[in-house]
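Appendix B, record 7
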Amino acid sequence: MDSLRYLKSVGDQVRRSFLENKTILAFQEYMEAFFEAPRVHARDAAQYIRDCFDFYGTETLHKPWGSVRRFKLFDRPFDQSAAVQEGEGGAPVVGQEDVQNAIYRILHSFVRAGRVHKLILLHGPNGSAKSSIVGALQRALEDYSRKEEGALYRLNWIFPNDRLVKGSIGFGEKLAGGHAVESYAHLEGEQIDARLSCEMKDHPLFLVPRGERQRLLADRCKPDDAFQLAAGVLEGELCHKCRQIYAALLQSYNGDVLKVLRHVQVERFYLSRRYMIGAVTVEPQMSVDADYRQVTSDRSHGNLPGALQNLSLYEPFGPLVSGNRGVIEFSDLLKRPLEHYKYLLGTVETGIARMNHFLLHLDSLLISSSNEKHLSAFKEMGDFASFKGRIELVRVPYLRRVQEEERVYSFRLKDSVGKHVAPHATWVAALWAVLTRLKKPVGDRYKGDLRKLADHLTPLEKARLYDEGRAPDRLSSQQARELKKHLQDFWKESESYPNYEGRTGASARELKTAIGNAAQNPAWKCLTPQAVLEELEALTSDKSVYEFLQQEVVDGYHDHEEFVRIAEGEYLDVLDEEVREAMGLISEKQYRTMFERYALHVLAWTRGERLRNPHTGEMERADEEMMAQTESIIMAGAEDRREFRRGLISAVGAHRLEHPEGEIDYSQIFPDLFRRLRDHFFDERKRTLRKNAEKVLRYLGDERAQLSAKEQSQVQQTLKALERYGYCENCAKDGIVMLLSRRYTD
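Structure tokens (predicted):
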């Protein structure tokens, strides 16, 4: 009985959902739904997909070079359920906001034009997220099609059995029992002799004669910035098979279209990649993308009314058919021989694919992908000139920001590696990957001092500039401001070049493999930065396998072996700082108080004012000795002190204009100066750190009992502080051992 109750409960829930979603409608019911929300039911594929972008919304991201719009559908919010957390959902698309906005702009142009008239070609190096971008879009469309705002409908043809109906010519006028019938759409299975689906998922509005449909749409759907009437909806016609059925029924009913519409069942459908419904990926196999077969030659259709049995009905099939009303992706399109996709020349421009016996009128977004090598070869072909005007090229480079690259590796990493992930394990991989992708700035593009700054910018400095907007510490305040001012110029510098920044370098796929191998290293109990660095060393030694390793080194750029050492050095810097703070060797309050006092005296100096001495109460001039002592720590090179002070006060003033409320946080305005202060404070405590680190290792080893109770308590406090950074005892020990051997060995 429990199972019966359970199944009854499930059945009630499914039926309730079926009815609430208006899954099956008679044509009259569909028209009622149209009149309630005409714009929902009068969209072509381009408008529908653009509405999907808008449905999930946008957010504004603030990056070091400016603000950028991000579309939330690429974060895959629909995949954040508990079931997906167990590993079924895809990873969000990290970064690539320029690509997202480019696709949206193209969709908008299709909507304004009234139809899809170009093929979108995503091109970039292998592993740059081209497939992930299309996958996220298709997954969003799946979810959107299940929302009320994203409802999609197609039509079927229903023919009741002879036992149920009375009348001539096999179509029936009345149900058995004499009751008049308005529609066969809701008949149950045993009452139906034949049900013919429309493989093209024809828009139900195509059943309304074109002229009347155009008047209806013009009256109900007023165009504006958010909506445009598509040519395909205004002028579209039924597919070849449906047109034949419609014409045969109309003839049999002597032109009574209402009787024809009784046979129409309007069915809601949901986009699905798994079942290839409006979301299809065509792999670069050697086969055609559409074909057809004759329906009326199949014995299973012998129950069709006689008027239809005399027709030669053909039903199309293949990716072009399955993907209609949605998105068709041609993965690695240019890997196919030209003859296998040359048909797209006409299909893209006209929206028509030519079959032997009829035409396929398509309503789909066509999007493809290619790596740069195949695209370059394609451009050399004579046919490229014909394709050029029918393609929208969208570049998809590798990521160039470390924090974004790290997010690619961190997604569900712990579940996949099966062990604790130490802090910075993925960060060192991301840093190395980004360094391999950067290009030396072209100094000739810049003028004056900026040209010199560009010429001397190292790969690591460029990575920091992109990632944090952080100028090199070696620069003066004025130089740093000048560099940051032109950051966007550096970011976009090579966009017009064939060999653009982000075209070459390590692929995220290769780094994921390296991280996976590092996780299997038995020498480490955790996935540690040390294990990752070992894998990167091994990777750089195999130049015959990875093409990017064969690049010529140019002023430190493309020196991939050296980048491993740079990544290690950066990791040691971060580890060093974390261990210092965990041991309480840095008092942020100390150098914060020192800087605040310095800024107060500089302000008085610039204004020519006096300050009250807190000890004597006397009004005194700004303390020149104190200011000079502080500047000896925080100033870079032989910068003029007076200019430095004026620049500092100007920066504070600019910050106050942008943030008029609240106290001034100097550490946010001058992170580089605070970093120098912190390093200076620590330099005097190195010996203490070495002793404390050795005590931690003894505590974690076999000599815990030899430490006093006070020393053990101090070690425990240190380990507890390290836990806040994500360390366990194993990776804390590994990190401290490495730090002592590389930084604190006499």
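Remarks on this record: The longest helix spans residues 560-582. DSSP finds 33 helices and 19 strands in the chain.
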